[in-house]
């Protein structure tokens, strides 16, 4: 049974890029796009889709990774439904209290959580939710919150069911969380070889080599690894961990890539190490560029986000590199560094802090 008969994607910032990437359908199901002209919160985003919705619908944030069981759970229920999940640190999230399977309260990031169930931000609604969205006022942070619309619905003596979900739920809102998501998605990968694997290349574990990709002699690839169409790996390269080598990526001689994502058109041609990192599109690593992915004190790597150093919780974390960035030969990049779009480094440079240009 299909869960939905149509996708409605609400886009805003870089909306045309999202449309180009997703296209007109997914798995044979059509996609319709709605534009949110200004980012004014989740309730506002959902409200933008009202003209495209005529029946009960699911709401799933575009920056979370879940498995297919949750949409099926929500679709099988009736009326307004909130997906909840037990966690060890609920005070960092919106916390949900339930009684008899129904939601009784939603509290945002409480100091003293009334339960260990968090709001996953995934819902099912009837079209009547739009009238409560219309009544929702801006929160102190200047957004229209869907949790307030739900509270208005409950205050109108309408029940909201809680569906407890125990599968993977990964919030991909910060750079290093792309690695968490990649690891989750590649877990259980089924390998296949549609491209070219030269004699003398070694593939271990689950490896996908797409049509048009090439693995040259002497390369050693340990799955789970996906090597996309047009990618060229080797000779004598080492690719391992949960790694995606994107379309038309070049991983050359004596280059090691571990637990990383290299996006389309990126090149690391000679004598480089890339570990636990995310490289954007059309990045070029000069010969000998090396990434540090481990602190000397063995503590979790920290990364600067919105002016604040955040503990990533990752013992191993390399770098996040923006599109079209170029490094000079023998550049050293420290653990947790971010390089912005179209940044350049000098030959032999040691980069210890974030760089924007």
TrEMBL record:
Residues 222-308 form the Mannose-1-phosphate guanyltransferase C-terminal domain. Signal peptide: none annotated. The keyword Acyltransferase applies. Its EC number is 2.3.1.157, 2.7.7.23. CDD domains: LbH_G1P_TT_C_like, NTP_transferase. It catalyses: alpha-D-glucosamine 1-phosphate + acetyl-CoA = N-acetyl-alpha-D-glucosamine 1-phosphate + CoA + H(+); N-acetyl-alpha-D-glucosamine 1-phosphate + UTP + H(+) = UDP-N-acetyl-alpha-D-glucosamine + diphosphate. Pathway: Nucleotide-sugar biosynthesis; UDP-N-acetyl-alpha-D-glucosamine biosynthesis; N-acetyl-alpha-D-glucosamine 1-phosphate from alpha-D-glucosamine 6-phosphate (route II): step 2/2; Nucleotide-sugar biosynthesis; UDP-N-acetyl-alpha-D-glucosamine biosynthesis; UDP-N-acetyl-alpha-D-glucosamine from N-acetyl-alpha-D-glucosamine 1-phosphate: step 1/1. It comes from the Archaea. One of its GO terms (molecular function) is UDP-N-acetylglucosamine diphosphorylase activity. This is Bifunctional protein GlmU.
């Amino acid at each position: 049974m299909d869960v939905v008969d149509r996708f409605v994607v609400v886009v805003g910032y870089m909306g045309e890029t999202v449309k180009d990437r997703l296209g007109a359908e997914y798995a044979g199901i059509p996609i319709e796009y709605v534009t949110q002209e200004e980012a004014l919160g989740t309730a506002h985003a959902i409200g933008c889709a009202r003209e495209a919705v005529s029946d009960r619908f699911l709401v799933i944030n575009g920056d979370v990774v879940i498995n297919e069981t949750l949409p099926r759970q929500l679709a099988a229920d009736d009326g307004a439904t909130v997906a909840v999940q037990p966690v060890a640190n609920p005070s960092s999230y919106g916390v949900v209290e339930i009684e008899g399977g129904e939601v009784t309260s939603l509290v945002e990031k409480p100091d003293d959580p009334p339960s260990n169930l968090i709001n996953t931000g995934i819902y099912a609604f009837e079209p009547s939710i739009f009238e409560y969205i219309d009544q929702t006022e801006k929160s102190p942070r200047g957004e229209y919150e869907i949790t307030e619309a739900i509270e208005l619905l409950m205050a109108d003596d309408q029940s909201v069911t809680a569906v407890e979900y125990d599968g993977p739920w990964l919030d991909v809102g910060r750079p290093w969380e792309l690695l968490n998501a990649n690891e989750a998605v590649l877990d259980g990968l089924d390998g296949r070889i549609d491209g070219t694997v030269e004699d003398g290349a070694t593939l271990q574990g689950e490896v996908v080599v797409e049509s048009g990709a090439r693995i040259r002699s002497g390369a050693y690839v340990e799955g789970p690894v996906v090597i996309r169409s047009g990618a060229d790996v080797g000779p004598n390269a080492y690719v391992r961990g949960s790694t995606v080598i994107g379309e038309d990526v070049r991983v050359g001689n004596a280059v090691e890539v571990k637990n990383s994502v290299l996006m389309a058109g990126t090149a690391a041609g000679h004598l480089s190490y890339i570990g636990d990192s995310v490289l954007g599109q059309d990045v070029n690593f000069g010969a000998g560029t090396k990434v540090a992915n481990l602190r000397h004190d063995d503590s979790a790597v920290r990364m600067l986000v919105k002016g604040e150093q955040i503990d990533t919780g990752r013992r191993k974390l390399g770098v996040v590199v923006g599109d079209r960035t170029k490094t000079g030969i023998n550049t050293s990049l420290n653990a947790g560094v971010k390089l912005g779009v179209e940044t350049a480094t000098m030959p032999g440079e040691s980069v210890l802090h974030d760089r924007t240009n």
